[in-house]
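hi! just following up on the protien thing from before. the input was this:
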Amino acid sequence: IQLKSITDSLFSLRQKNEIVMQQSPDYEFNFNQDLILEKIVKREASTSRKIIEECMVFANKWIADFLDTHKKGLFISQGGLRPNTIEQVNEFLTSAIDDYDSAKISDSEYFTQCFNQLSHIDQLCIQKRLQRSSTSTNANKHWAMGINKYCTFTSPIRKLNDFINHQYLHSILSNLNEPVISDELLEQLNTQVRTARQAANQTENQLRIDTINEKDIFKARMSHSSAGNIIFEIIENGAQCQFILRKIKSEFNPLNFSHKIKGVTYSLNDVFNIQITKKDSFSSTLECIILKDDS
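and the predicted 3d structure came back as:
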């Protein structure tokens, strides 16, 4: 009970003073003894997991402060909005926040303040316009978390960044030589992180697709869109599928990613019934249609 109370307090402080990004649901892939996928189960966040996550974030922030004090460490920074989206974001926030001041968009604290005033859906619209995070030896701001500096160190046996930060800590506490991190190694680290994430996403998506057949019907949440298609995430297993707007007349709003088709508005996070119309295992893609009895 005490740990849960501490966790709730840490989370509340982050919600008030920082940015807590909305995360995608987690899914558990269950294999049999022959390593054949039997089912995919949506995993709800348990109390113990929330405790671990909040303690991990708190510890990472504390270590980032400690390492920065000694001007050593590998830090994760996030530079805010992609430059080519700033004009759209200014227009979006002007309509969403009464006293919004577009001249302050380059101020990270003001960005955090504005972000936390937005609704769940509006936050998603801003979230999709953020730059990628990157690793460096400089403790720069992490706009997407609303904090001045951040690093990771809690998983040294599985993450190279964390292992290197343990080496930095050891060098500080034991007065030993610190690890030598060249610009070339930093670039390799950033590239490998992106490649590993892409590989994991592609593998998981392929496994999800293998459990799906054409003509299957699912409830799915609208997760993204462009002028030419709408992307849905199937709630049951997290698979991504696209509704392609080939010959369909649609009014696309690039500010909030919504579509208006035959008088019906399709917005981010809305749930609809969809039917799989095409499954391409080679390219790991699914196509679907939106059924009329949506909900």
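The chain is about 35% helix and 25% strand.
The helical segments are 2-17, 47-69, 86-96, 108-115, 120-127, 160-174, 183-210.
cheers
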